[in-house]
Design a protein that fits this description.
With 138 residues, the protein is mostly helical. It is built from seven helices and no strands.
């Protein structure tokens, strides 16, 4: 185990540059770029907040805020989206990067590290952008 981590540490520049390329390629495929990463989940939150608060009148016990239940579910949705992204990208990481595996010599542990770190950074960026809006609502 220590040997794997040591080899990954030696290729840390490769890992960081691959994470950066992952961000750039993700934003290059969208016309809105990085803004889409924030707009999509917040649009889902707005829809859930409207349906749960206005239409269904769902509320948490002992809390008077009408959007508290929607915010409660939003926290779960954000954590679930991180989990599903990690699992779905980890399932195909070696198949998706098959051409890289054939052309370069590097420790194979680097690919799961790249996938997991980029997904966590995406999620942290989203949490950071969504947190001020949530705090303003309460």
């Amino acid at each position: 185990m220590f040997d794997m981590l040591l080899r990954a540490w030696r290729y840390r520049h490769f890992i960081f540059s691959s994470i950066k390329n992952d961000f750039l390629s993700c934003f290059a495929r969208s016309r809105l770029g990085g803004l889409w990463m924030v707009i999509h989940p917040l649009a889902q939150v707005a829809i859930f907040a409207f349906i749960l608060s206005a239409v269904l009148s769902s509320r948490l016990p002992e809390i008077d805020n009408r959007y508290a239940y929607a915010l409660y579910l939003t926290a779960g949705m954000l954590a679930w989206s991180l989990f599903t992204e990690l699992v779905s990208r980890s399932l195909t990481v070696f198949v998706d990067n098959g051409n890289l595996l054939k052309k370069m010599m590097f420790p194979r542990i680097c690919l799961p590290l790249i996938v997991s770190r980029s997904a966590v950074i995406f999620a942290l960026f989203l949490f950071r952008k969504a947190a001020p809006e949530v705090a303003d609502t309460l």
